[in-house]
Amino acid sequence: MTIATVSIERRDALPVVHVRGEIELPNSDAVRTDILATVPPDGPGMILDLTQTTHLDSSGIRMLFEVAERLRVRRQLLVLVANEEALIRRVIALTKLDDVVLLVATVDEALTILQTA
């Protein structure tokens, strides 16, 4: 079974979720549950930091689309963080996920976006 660890921190009262490892079929449901549990119902949204995510398969992409949709329904933003060199950034672009969510290179950029939302 593949392993992904999810950790949460609050920066300026905004949730920043860090996912380390691989998001694949065996763990994508658990990762989604962990991510959605961190989003307050009244905030502007959340930051999902994928800089330590080493692999993202189709179930991981589907999970990210589902998280984005749940937040959209609640009128909240999902901001993904993946540095410019990350291979998963290419996967995000190829699947057009970046047409649905904001994709930035750093957590600080994401914080600026959510603070002004």
Describe the protein in words.
- The chain is α/β, with parallel strands linked by helices.
- Helix content is 36%, strand content 30%.
- The protein has one domain (4-115): 2-Layer Sandwich (Transcription Regulator spoIIAA), CATH 3.30.750.
- Strands 1, 2, 3, 4, 5 and 6 form a six-stranded mixed beta sheet that branches.
- The radius of gyration is 13 Å and the shape is globular.
Whole-number tally of structural domains: 1
The number of E-state strands comes to: 6
Strand content: 25-35%
How many DSSP H or I helices?
4
Give the class from helix and strand content and strand pairing.
alpha/beta
Tell me the distance between the termini: 38 Å
The CATH class is identified as Alpha Beta
* CATH topology (fold) name: Transcription Regulator spoIIAA
Largest sheet: 6 strands, mixed
Q: State the fourth-level CATH superfamily.
A: STAS domain
Average pLDDT confidence is 94
Morphology call: globular
- Helix content estimate: 25-40%
Tell me the series of helices and strands, N- to C-terminal: EEHEEHEHEH
Per CATH, the architecture is 2-Layer Sandwich
Rg from C-alpha positions?
A: 13 Å
Low-pLDDT stretches are none
Summarize, please.
By secondary structure, the chain is α/β, with parallel strands linked by helices. 36% of the residues lie in helices and 30% in strands.
